[in-house]
Amino acid sequence: MAAPAAALPPLYLGFDFSTQQLKVLAIDGNLNVLHQDNVQFDTELPEFRTQGGVHIHSDGLTVTSPVLMWVKALDLLLDKMKRTGFDFSRVRALSGSGQQHGSVFWRRGASETLKQLDSAEDLFQQLQDAFSVSDSPVWMDSSSRKQCQDLQAAAGGALRLAEITGSRAYERFTGNQIAKLWQSRPEQYQDTERISLVSSFAASLFLGSYAAIDFSDGSGMNLLDIRTRTWSQTCLEATAPDLDGLLGTPLPSASVLGPVSSYLVHRFGFSESCRVVAFTGDNPASLAGMRLQQGDIAVSLGTSDTVFLWIQQPRPALEGHVFCNPVEQRAYMALLCFKNGSLTRERVRNQCAGASWELFSGALRNSPLGNNGNIGFYFDTMEITPAALGVHRFDRDDNKVSSLSPEAEVRALVEGQFLSRRLHAERLGYSIIPGTRVLATGGASSNRDILQVLSDVFNAPVYSIDLSNSTCLGSAFRALHGLAEQSGLSFFDVVKNVPEPQLVATPHPTAAQVYGHMLKRYARLEERVLQETCP
Ligand SMILES: Nc1ncnc2c1ncn2[C@@H]1O[C@H](COP(=O)(O)OP(=O)(O)O)[C@@H](O)[C@H]1O
Ligand SMILES: O=C(CO)[C@@H](O)[C@H](O)COP(=O)(O)O
C-alpha cells in the first residue's frame, strides 16, 4: 500500500520563468533532484507567435513578451506535473526566479481577481483582464534611451546613479521602462494598481496575492538604493508619479511570503502549509544554485551570457551592475550581461554547421587555438556590453574581411564571445589568478567543446554542476533555506552536503600565450568597432 503523503519525505520546488521557457525542478530534504520539467514558449505555446520567447517590434529596439503566455505556461506546466503523478501534497516550500528587469503591470481590480480564483478553471482564463499592459517589456528591450538620460540627469550623473542603485541607467532596467510607459501611454499607467518584476509576478501567481519584490532582483531596476535597501526617492520621483505604492515594499530575498493560494490547494492538491519564498532574478538564483563563493567567477551561457561574482562591498562603475546578494544579506554580487549569447550561437550554428550542435562542436575541435589570427564580433542585435551592433570580422593583420570559412566562423564567434567576457570582467577589476574557478552554467554549458574554449580563453579551469539548470536548482535551495532561516541557519549551512562542482575543462598549455596576445588585439579592435558603429 502507498504511504500516506504526510509520511513521505517533503519536497521543495524551484521554478524559473526565463526568456525562452518555464522550468521546474524538485528536490528532497537531502538535496537530491527528483523531478524536472519545462514548457518551451515558442513550440508549446505557438499561438503567442514568439521567437525565442519574445516579440521584437518593428523599431528593432522594443522587445516584449505576452504576459498571458507566462500565465498559460504555468497552467501547462502544473498540468503536466499532475499528469505524470507528481505529488504536490509533499511540497513544503517553493521558490523561483524570472528573467531580470522585465515588468508586469497589473490592472486595477486584479488583486481581487487573484484572491478569488476558482479552482475549476485555469489561470489563463481567469486572468484575461488582469493586466493593464498585455505585452511586458523584457530585458532585451533597448528603447528607453531618453528615459535613461533623464534619470541620470535627475540623479546627478551616471556615476552618482550607479552609486545609489548599483548601475548607471540601462535601457532594459525596469524604472526606465516604467518611465517610458508613463510618458507614452499614461492611461495604461493610470489603470495599473501594481507593478511586478517577472519574478514577483510569478510569485504572485503562487501566493494568490501580490508578492513583494526581493532586494536582489529589485537591484536591476535603477530604483532601489542597494545600500539602504529601500526605494530611492530621487529615482522614484524622476520615473513616474505615485510609484512607491505601485511597487510595494521590497523584502529580503529569503523572506517567506506566505502560504500557497487556496486555488493551488484545491486544483493541484498542494498542502495548505506549503510556503512561498520570495522569487528572485534568474542570475541571482543561479548564484545560489552553483553555491558561488568569493573568488569564483560564474559564466552563464543562457539566452543571454552573463558573468557574475560574489562581492563583499559594492564598487559601482559605469559598466556592469551591482546587485544585493540573494543568499547573504550583507553581501553583493557583480554582473555583466551580454545580449548576443545563445541566439547568436544558434544563428551561426544554422548557417555554418548544418543546424547541428555536433557539427558546431566538430568545427571547434578541428580549428586551432587563436583561429589563425582571425577575430570576430557578432552583435546580431544591439549589444549591452559594449553598446555596439553588427558583425565585424578581422584577419590576422587586422584587415576587415567580409567572410570566413564555416569552421573559422564558428571559432571566431566562440573565441570572440569569451574574449569579450574576459576583457570586460578584467576592466571591472576582476582578474583571474591561480586558484580562480570558472563555474559554467546555462543551456550551452552542456557543450564540452564550448567549455574548452572558455577554459582556454580565460586560461583557467572550468567547473560545472551536473545540471546546466542552476537557476531552478538555486530556487529549490532557496525555498529550503527560506524555511531554515527562520531557525537561524545560513544558506551555506543548508546546502553544505551538495557535491562540489566537477572539473570539466583545463586550459591547453599554449592558451596563456595565444589568448594573452589576442586579448590585447581584441580590445584594440573593439575600440575600432565602437568608433565605426556607435549609434
Ligand atoms: N549542446 C548545446 N550546445 C550549445 N548550446 C546549447 C546546447 N544545448 C542548448 N544550448 C543553448 O541553450 C540555450 C538555452 O539556455 P537556457 O539556459 O535554458 O536559456 P534560458 O534560461 O535563457 O531560457 C538555447 O538557446 C541553446 O542555444
Ligand atoms: O538582463 C539580464 C541580466 O542583467 C539577463 O541575464 C536576463 O536575466 C535574462 O536571462 P536569461 O533568460 O538569458 O537567463
TrEMBL record:
Keyword ATP-binding in record: yes
This enzyme's EC code(s): 2.7.1.17
Entry annotated with the keyword ATP-binding: yes
Keywords: ATP-binding, Carbohydrate metabolism, Kinase, Nucleotide-binding, Transferase, Xylose metabolism
BP GO terms, sorted: D-xylose metabolic process; xylulose metabolic process
Occurrences of domain Carbohydrate kinase FGGY C-terminal (ranges): 298-481
Class of this enzyme: transferase
Catalytic activity: D-xylulose + ATP = D-xylulose 5-phosphate + ADP + H(+)
Family the entry assigns: Belongs to the FGGY kinase family.
Job description of the protein: Phosphorylates D-xylulose to produce D-xylulose 5-phosphate, a molecule that may play an important role in the regulation of glucose metabolism and lipogenesis.
Protein name: Xylulose kinase
Species: Channa striata (Snakehead murrel)
